[in-house]
């Protein structure tokens, strides 16, 4: 008996270090990793938060007055949409025929200094499907990144299913997660930093990043009955040395902070890809979108397991821009007529003077 069919594909979450604050070298490293993932049969390859050119961990361990050099280096190596490095990333996706998700620090041509924490998603042809800027930088990250907007806070419909993405702490934002689910999300991408020290080691209450990521990944997958592809970074020796700058206290904080985890979670909330903690590698899993169907008999929070007559969510998807120009046709008409009258008056005055 004929029936509808649903996407099946292979997902790979890459856990890797950036080449610290070196955009071009990091892109070259990413190219090798994408080729490796493609050789494993990957259809979707996911990289960590701000993988290009590095996560600004110095925001957490230095006072603002001591961060200027890092900020400048990050800006100089940040990515502009449409630039040559951007086109290189698009070509990597196209050459390997994979869907490619990567976290970047983004800059644009309007402000010489503003940056955003951005996730990019490319299709197999190297076309950009989505560019999501993190809505609210978390804690000390506000020293580097500006607020994003909801202009591209939506899943994109692809041959693999409807793919959405949130960055790090956004996966704690219940309304952001629900907004994606309510627009039909089936595959969720979560990207995280290489380290996130929240307390000094001696306080004994450091933010347990491994547990926090696992909890959030399972919660979203279970609540929405979706697959969750989680990619976290790695802080390598070179990054530790460059950030600590010989300060043993800062080095201790970086080395003793809990490590993140990369994993893949199914719609039951169970981990289906072997988790990877604190080292470089890849997490792989086979995804079958149809596994969500039966589970939604019990809980469908964007369907019949909700009360939309009681709860309502609104989202403003307008882009945040520094200037909105509205064309006043009447004013333009009056100005043009006035200019024409002035030209005529000037011409007449010139003729009278000659006479």
Model description:
The protein folds into two domains: 8-295, Nitrilase/N-carbamoyl-D-aminoacid amidohydrolase; 325-355. Strands 1, 2, 3, 4, 5, 6 and 13 form a seven-stranded mixed β-sheet that branches. The protein has a six-stranded mixed β-sheet with strand order 7-8-9-10-11-12, covered by helices on one side. The protein has helices at 23-39, 58-61, 68-77, 84-96, 174-182, 209-224, 237-244, 248-256, 291-295, 329-354, and strands at 8-15, 44-46, 79-80, 99-107, 116-122, 128-133, 156-158, 161-167, 187-192, 227-232, 261-265, 271-277, 281-288. The mean pLDDT is 93. The radius of gyration is 25 Å and the shape is globular. The protein is built from ten helices and 13 strands. The N and C termini lie far apart (97 Å). A hairpin with a 2-residue loop joins strand 7 and strand 8. By secondary structure, the chain is an alpha/beta fold.
What topology does this entry show?
Blueprint lengths: L7 E8 L7 H17 L4 E3 L11 H4 L6 H10 L1 E2 L3 H13 L2 E9 L8 E7 L5 E6 L22 E3 L2 E7 L6 H9 L4 E6 L16 H16 L2 E6 L4 H8 L3 H9 L4 E5 L5 E7 L3 E8 L2 H5 L33 H26 L1
Parallel strand pairs: 1-2, 2-4, 3-4, 8-9, 9-10
Antiparallel strand pairs: 1-13, 4-5, 5-6, 7-8, 10-11, 11-12
Helix pairs in contact: 1-4, 7-8
| Tally of helical runs | 10
What string, H for helix and E for strand, traces the elements in order? EHEHHEHEEEEEHEHEHHEEEHH
Count of beta strands: 13
Give the C-alpha Rg.
25 Å
What would CATH call the architecture of the largest domain?
4-Layer Sandwich
Helix amount: 25-40%
Uncertain ranges: none
The number of domains is 2
Distance between the termini: 97 Å
Supply the CATH superfamily name of the largest domain: Carbon-nitrogen hydrolase
Strand content: 15-25%
Average of the residue pLDDT scores? 93
Structural class: alpha/beta
Sheet bearing the most strands, described?
7 strands, mixed
Q: What is the C-level CATH assignment of the largest domain?
A: Alpha Beta
Shape label: globular
State the CATH topology of the largest domain.
Nitrilase/N-carbamoyl-D-aminoacid amidohydrolase
């Amino acid at each position: 008996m004929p029936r509808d069919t649903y996407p099946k594909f292979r997902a790979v979450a890459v856990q890797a270090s950036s080449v610290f604050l070196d955009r071009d070298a990091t892109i070259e490293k990413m190219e090798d990793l994408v080729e490796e993932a493609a050789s494993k049969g990957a259809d979707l390859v996911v990289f960590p938060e701000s993988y290009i050119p590095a996560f600004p961990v110095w925001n957490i361990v230095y006072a603002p007055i001591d961060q200027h050099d890092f900020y400048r280096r990050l800006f100089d190596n940040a990515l502009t949409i449409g630039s040559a490095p951007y086109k290189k990333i698009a070509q990597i996706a196209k050459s390997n025929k994979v869907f490619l998700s990567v976290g970047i620090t983004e800059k644009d041509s309007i402000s010489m200094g503003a940056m955003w924490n951005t996730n990019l998603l490319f299709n197999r042809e190297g076309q950009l499907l989505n560019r999501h800027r993190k809505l609210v930088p978390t804690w000390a990250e506000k020293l580097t990144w500006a607020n994003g907007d909801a202009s591209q806070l939506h899943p994109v419909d692809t041959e693999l299913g409807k793919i959405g993405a949130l960055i790090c702490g956004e996966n704690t934002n219940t309304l952001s997660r629900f907004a994606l689910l309510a627009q039909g999300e089936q595959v969720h991408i979560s990207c995280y930093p290489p380290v996130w020290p929240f307390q000094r080691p001696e306080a004994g209450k450091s933010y347990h990043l491994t547990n926090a990521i696992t909890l959030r990944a399972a919660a979203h997958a279970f609540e929405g009955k979706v697959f969750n592809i989680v990619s976290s970074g790695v802080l390598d020796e070179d990054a530790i040395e460059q950030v600590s700058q010989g300060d043993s206290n800062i080095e201790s904080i970086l080395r003793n902070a809990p490590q993140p985890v990369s994993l893949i979670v199914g719609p039951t909330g169970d981990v289906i890809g072997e988790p990877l903690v604190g080292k470089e590698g890849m997490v792989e899993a086979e995804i079958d979108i149809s596994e969500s169907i039966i589970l939604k008999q019990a809980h469908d929070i964007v369907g019949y397991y909700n009360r939309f007559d009681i709860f309502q969510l609104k989202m403003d998807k307008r882009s945040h821009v520094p200037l909105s120009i509205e064309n006043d046709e009447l004013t333009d008409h009056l100005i043009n007529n006035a200019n024409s009258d002035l030209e005529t008056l000037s011409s007449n005055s010139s003729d009278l003077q000659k006479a």
